[in-house]
Automatic annotation (TrEMBL):
Protein name stated in the entry: SnoaL-like domain-containing protein
Upper lineage: Bacteria, Bacillati, Actinomycetota, Actinomycetes, Streptosporangiales
Length: 140
């Protein structure tokens, strides 16, 4: 596996979610993810409970490929960042173990303040150092 700087990778990853330029977002996605790579999201607990109550046996949300990842990132940008209320940041706890990079992230008010959301991220990297699978576990 190619030697990468995990802190730099996480910095670029987190910055992507707050990038206002759609062209830069797309280029960054293609640089960070392997072709056909995926983003797998475990929805918040209340959504999982609602789905289970409706008879669904799983609630994992998953997208694959550059177009789908781009749509996912763009939606998060439009929802949380574009209105000017929040931004994302790494919690600074990046750990790399072989082909995996683990870190937590926070959603914070623009201008500072306590986090209003966040989660755990586990990135599985391919031989070229790009993301094959991105597992996201949002927290309270």
């Amino acid at each position: 596996m190619i030697d990468i700087d995990a802190g730099n990778l996480v910095g670029r990853y987190v910055a992507l979610w707050g990038e206002p330029d759609a062209g830069v977002r797309r280029t960054t996605i293609e640089e960070l993810w392997a072709e056909g790579g995926g983003h797998v999201l475990q929805p918040p607990q209340e959504i999982r409970e609602t789905a289970a109550g409706l008879g669904f046996d799983h609630t994992t949300l998953e997208v694959h490929g550059y177009d789908a990842i781009e749509a996912r990132v763009a939606h998060a940008y439009r929802t949380f960042v574009a209105p000017g209320e929040y931004t994302f940041r790494s919690a600074g706890d990046v750990v790399r173990l072989r082909e995996m990079v683990k870190f937590t992230w926070e959603m914070v008010p623009v201008g500072g303040g306590d986090p209003v959301g966040g989660g755990l991220e586990v990135l599985v990297l391919g031989e070229d150092g790009r993301i094959v699978t991105d597992y996201q576990f949002p927290g309270p």
